[in-house]
Amino acid sequence: MAVANRRNIALLLLVSIILPTAGGCSTNPVTGKSELIMIPTSQEIAMGLQAAPQVETQFGGPVADTILQAYIQRVGKKVAAVADREMPYDFTLVNSEIPNAFALPGGKIFITAGLMSRMTNEQQLAAVLGHEIVHVAAKHGVKGMQRGVGASVLVEIAGAAAGADKAAAAKAASKVAASMVTMKYGRNDEYESDKYGMKYMTKAGYNPWGMVELLTILLNLSEKEPGALAAMFQTHPLSSQRIAAVKANIADDPMYRGYSPVAADPNTAQFVGMHKRLLKHATFKSAPQPKQ
């Protein structure tokens, strides 16, 4: 039997197993578009929980400072509270000096010390966390898995929902979820995450220009240290077009009226204090101090 035929049969089997649980076509909570989601929310969350310890280890483990971790959680939860999809969002700062941020299925979100160390205020942190929240809320990762991991693996995962070999399904789910770290999002996914991430951070009380600041920092870094962002570019393609799109959203959407691109972030002093803790407790000390 041809490989393509076997994959098609496997996909049909997957749909027959999982659609009764997932409900088939659904409305995306962020965009309002109708789409076919084959992985139910309960399994999405389980996959993220299963993979999280492995991912944490891969990126040097959590930064060993409870105050700093509580700060990341506080900023992340503040933005997640206004998201269009309610999920068990959880935020962890990991020790890797490589600038990056990524989300696992179900709401586990990670930011590296290398990325935070290059920021200068809290609204930039809210911007990157908001961007990652959208990847979860709009199911970008779930849709990416459906496109890319292979029908046979998804059938294994579906087996857990059907009460089959849960140990094997959990192992497969962990493998798939861990692959999310290197999964490439499409251009539309990135634009959506910028657009709605900026909306979320603004509703949470931050200046939307923080998103422009964040993207500008990354773009400048990519020009000065092209190797530093190689990993992030694999999953989050960056271009001047994204910055232009964000600026156009600010100009066109009435919710952003009155925000100034030069207004100081009122939370900068707090961020500077956390930045100092980061340089003390993370496993590297190479980043410059942010300006107050």
Distance between the termini: 66 Å
Q: In terms of structural class, how would the helical and strand content be classed?
A: mainly alpha
Low-confidence stretches: 1-23
**Strand fraction band?**
5-15%
Radius of gyration: 19 Å
Task: Determine the mean pLDDT.
Answer: 81
Shape type: globular
* Distinct helical segment count: 13
Whole-number count of domains: 1
Helix-strand sequence: HEEHHEEEHHHHHHHHHH
Please count the beta strands (DSSP E, at least 2 residues each): 5
Estimated helix fraction: 55-70%
* Order of strands, widest sheet: 3-5-4
Largest sheet: 3 strands, mixed
Task: Explain the layout of strands and helices.
Elements: H1 3-22, E1 25-27, E2 34-36, H2 41-58, H3 66-80, E3 90-94, E4 101-103, E5 108-112, H4 113-116, H5 122-137, H6 140-148, H7 151-161, H8 166-178, H9 187-203, H10 209-224, H11 230-235, H12 240-252, H13 268-281
Parallel strand pairs: 3-5
Antiparallel strand pairs: 1-2, 4-5
Helix pairs in contact: 1-7, 2-8, 3-5, 5-9, 5-10, 7-8, 9-12, 10-12
Structure description:
The chain is mainly alpha-helical and 292 residues long. It has one domain (20-281). It is built from 13 helices and five strands. It has helices spanning 3-22, 41-58, 66-80, 113-116, 122-137, 140-148, 151-161, 166-178, 187-203, 209-224, 230-235, 240-252, 268-281, and strands at residues 25-27, 34-36, 90-94, 101-103, 108-112. The chain has a three-stranded mixed β-sheet, with helices on both faces. A hairpin with a 6-residue loop joins strand 1 and strand 2 (34-36). Helix 5 (122-137) crosses helix 9 (187-203), helix 7 packs across helix 8 (166-178) and helix 10 packs antiparallel against helix 12. It is globular, with a radius of gyration of 19 Å.
